[in-house]
Write a structure and sequence with these properties.
By secondary structure, this protein is α/β, with parallel strands linked by helices. Helices cover 42% and strands 21% of the residues. It has four domains: 236 residues, Glycogen Phosphorylase B (Rossmann fold, 3-Layer(aba) Sandwich); 215 residues, 3-Layer(aba) Sandwich (Rossmann fold), CATH 3.40.50; 179 residues, HAD superfamily/HAD-like (Rossmann fold, 3-Layer(aba) Sandwich); 75 residues, Alpha-Beta Plaits (2-Layer Sandwich), CATH 3.30.70. A hairpin with a 2-residue loop joins strand 10 and strand 11. The protein is elongated. Belongs to the glycosyltransferase 20 family. InterPro entries: Glyco_trans_20, HAD-like_sf, HAD-SF_hydro_IIB, HAD_sf, Trehalose_OtsA, Trehalose_PPase.
């Protein structure tokens, strides 16, 4: 079967998203309808459970494969999440997924428990599919969007995204272990994979040891400087200078579960009745030992069965009193290693049941299929002992699920020290599953543990799982990535308190960026307009006593006046501070003769670049030019910006380059919004100020704020502003609340006079 050949522009995306998750699989499964139509159902799994709340909160999009080979699907909405399917052919599924991902990387990253296979054609497919995912993300992402790439199948995507969309904030999370260098170095494409990962701003791992292994691999292969969790990577994007570095964070963010959701389900009467039915169906043994795993050689299923069988053989456990329930959900059954594992385990189950079972009691109840969540919770409640004996595991969420369900404070967790969960769940009975005698002793200890000791351990485990749930995991990662985490809708309580305190100042300056702050971003800049709510709130602020309003923009002053239509008394700053409109009139910084000559040369160069790229637009400003790329695809925009920068650098020196959203600006006189804000503040004689902006160019203004001032960043992206709102609608609400607080402060002051 030939690969799916998808042109980068074939997949139509009618909306740009500020938050995108990219993973191998979508959070939904395809269902063929009886009438031949298309249906989708939410798919279970730790990653889906972890990220669905994030996506809904951020109004984001999820990019991934739909689970059906040789089929293409249009983007759609499902349960409040935008879904963007990426197609895979049957041959790509075989080579990229079953081959390189699961027969090369999986065994290598799990300490070569099974030998990895290295095939060049698998690597070629891996590169090709990673590029398809990266292109889908680049098309769907808005300017400065956050893209969170998931897991080992997509390790090349971060660099591919950075090359095509340097404006993006890129995160990567590795859900499986990262091996020591002595193992990792076996990979023929070891440099390419590390280089791909270093395209991210933050690389997350399950364990501190995994992050350390990665940093050591970076030093060995590239010689980059690492200090703590930070790696200095040479910056090669179009806006960087020679010798610049990007600081990449590589650290542990141990993933977790929706602990409250599991506990809520465990408390349901029907689930508790089902747990009692399970015990009765097994003959009401004194102790039920439970194992829940994907059928995978890394899970240590053979080791636990060997230990359990020897305990029965030696008489330390009796089949009349103890039953092992093993749930082994199907996994990668087209891979030969997994077929062999299934045969071996089923032979072991048959032998042990044949040797030790009685008519009323099985030794092992073996279940080779998956279950819905409510049935799994009932199994957790029915089990007295949970066995997690992974030989190597990134985290193992089953261990945390069992703990979350045991609201009764009972149950014992036997946990492999080679599972990431063992770093957090230290009150479990920790074991080395390779040590069969030690594993046998641990099982007997768990079976015979006194109730008081079981309760003491389980209470400590539950505190850990509940305090560090999936919401904390995702918020911690996003906060490290963006400085913001999940931005909630509207005005938060801390921001409201800051507004109310600010409103009490004697003379207030309200300084606002325009595009993306007051006005939603549009394809045609001349069509941008502030929202009606924002305009009404600004009018109230202008009318409030001792309150000045200023618009601070990168637009030329004429353009700003045209789109903003400011009323009487509004101060204006255009062209990043080169132009000002104050109470005394308009002011433009005069250029020296050398600067005027340089401006003529700059104009000639950029007019030629713009002429070579249909869809771009050149904006002339008093001290420079702005090259707008909003009408171009992301890859074409990045290429054009690089070309413009290279040509200007080759012919002119001393030109300031500034990146914005879908724009690159060149100026012969260096000014910024910070300098402009300071001048506006002095002119207004403000005793306190608030500045609100969405662009990287607004960071200079945030840096110029005094103690007692407020800085508010609009949207995602790194920022030094202490407060955040999501979009222009939230900015309008912010201005309304500020106007109300300012009016109340003025009314209170008048009563005292």
């Amino acid at each position: 079967m030939n690969p799916v050949h998808q042109d980068p522009d074939d997949l139509y995306v009618d909306h740009a998203y500020d938050m995108i998750v990219v993973s191998n699989r979508l959070p939904v499964d395809y269902e063929e309808q009886p009438d031949g139509g298309i249906g989708w159902k939410s798919s279970p799994g730790g990653l889906v459970t972890a990220l669905e709340p994030v996506m809904r909160a951020a109004d984001g999009a999820w990019i991934g494969w739909a689970g059906v080979a040789d089929r293409e699907f249009d983007p759609f909405e499902h349960d409040g999440i935008s879904i963007i399917p990426v197609p895979l052919s049957e041959s790509e599924l075989e080579e990229y997924y079953e081959g390189f991902s699961n027969d090369t990387l999986w065994p290598l990253y799990h300490d070569v428990i099974a030998p990895p296979s290295f095939h060049r054609e698998w690597w070629d497919a891996y590169v090709r599919v990673n590029r398809r995912f990266a292109e889908a993300a680049a098309r769907a992402a808005s300017d400065g969007a956050v893209v969170w790439v998931q897991d080992y199948q997509l390790q090349l995507v971060p660099k591919m995204l950075r090359e095509s969309r340097p404006d993006l904030v890129i995160g990567f999370f590795n859900h499986i272990p990262f091996p020591a260098y002595g193992i990792y170095s076996q990979l023929p494409w070891r440099r390419q994979v590390i280089d791909g990962l270093l395209g991210a701003d933050v690389i997350g791992f399950q364990r501190v040891a995994d992050a350390g292994n990665f940093s050591r691999a970076v030093r060995r292969l590239f010689g980059y400087r690492t200090h703590g969790t930070v790696i200095d990577v040479p910056d090669t994007d179009a806006t960087s200078n020679e010798g610049d570095v990007r600081r990449v964070v590589a650290r542990a963010f141990p993933i977790s579960i929706d602990a409250a959701g599991f506990e809520e389900m465990a408390r349901r009467p029907e689930v508790q009745r089902r747990a009692a039915e399970i015990r009765e169906s097994l003959g009401n043994p004194e102790t039920i030992i439970l194992g829940v795993d994907r059928l995978d050689y890394t899970k240590g299923i053979r080791h636990r069965m060997k230990a359990f069988g020897e305990l029965l053989r030696d008489g330390r456990l009796n089949v009349e009193d103890v039953t092992l329930v093993q749930v082994a959900s199907p996994s990668r059954e087209r891979v030969e290693t997994y077929r062999q594992l299934r045969d071996e385990i089923e032979l072991t189950v048959g032998r042990l049941n044949g040797d030790y079972a009685t008519l009323g009691h099985q030794a092992i109840a073996y279940l080779h299929h998956g279950y819905p969540r409510d049935e799994m919770v009932a199994l957790y409640l029915a089990a007295d002992v949970m066995l997690v004996t992974a030989l190597r595991d990134g985290m193992n969420l089953v261990a945390k699920e069992y703990v979350a369900c045991r609201f009764d404070g009972d149950g014992v967790l036997v946990l492999s020290e080679f599972a990431g969960a063992s770093d957090e769940l230290r009150q479990a009975v920790l074991v080395n599953p390779h040590d069969i005698e030690g594993l046998k002793d641990a099982i007997v200890e768990a079976v015979r543990m006194p109730r008081r000791e079981r309760t003491r351990r389980m209470r400590a485990l539950r505190r850990r799982v509940i305090d560090n749930d999936v919401a904390k995991w995702s918020a911690s990662f996003l906060e490290t990535l963006t400085g913001a985490g999940i931005i909630t809708a509207g005005v938060t309580e801390p921001l409201q308190r800051a507004i109310e305190e600010l409103a009490e100042t004697e003379r207030l300056l309200v300084a606002l960026d325009f595009d993306g702050t007051l006005a939603p971003l549009v394809d045609q800049p001349d069509e941008a307009r502030a929202t009606e709510r924002a305009r009404a709130a600004m009018a109230r602020l202008v009318a409030a006593p001792d309150t000045r309003l200023a618009l601070v923009s990168g637009r030329a002053l004429d353009s700003l006046g045209h789109v903003a239509e400011p009323g009487e008394g509004v101060l204006l700053s255009g062209s990043h501070g080169v132009e000002l409109k104050l109470d005394t009139g308009a002011i433009t910084l005069d250029l020296r003769d050398a600067e005027l000559l340089k401006l003529d040369q700059l104009t000639r160069i950029l007019e030629q670049v713009a002429a070579e790229t249909p869809g771009s637009r050149l904006e002339h400003k008093p001290a420079g030019l702005a090259l707008h790329t909003r009408g171009l695809s992301s890859s074409a925009a990045a290429a054009m910006q690089l070309l413009a920068r290279e040509r200007v650098a080759a012919e002119l020196g001393g030109v300031t380059v500034r990146m914005g959203k879908s724009v690159i600006e060149f100026a012969v006189r260096s000014t910024d919004k910070g300098e402009s804000f300071i001048r506006l503040r002095q002119h207004a004689r403000a005793t306190a100020a608030i500045y609100v902006g969405d662009d990287v160019t607004d960071e200079d203004a945030f840096a110029s704020l005094d103690e007692g001032d407020i800085g508010v960043k609009v949207g995602q992206g790194k920022s030094i502003a202490p407060y955040r709102v999501r979009n222009p609608d939230d900015v309008a609400e912010l201005l309304e609340r500020l106007a109300t607080a300012r009016e109340a402060a003025a009314e209170g002051a008048s009563r005292w006079q």
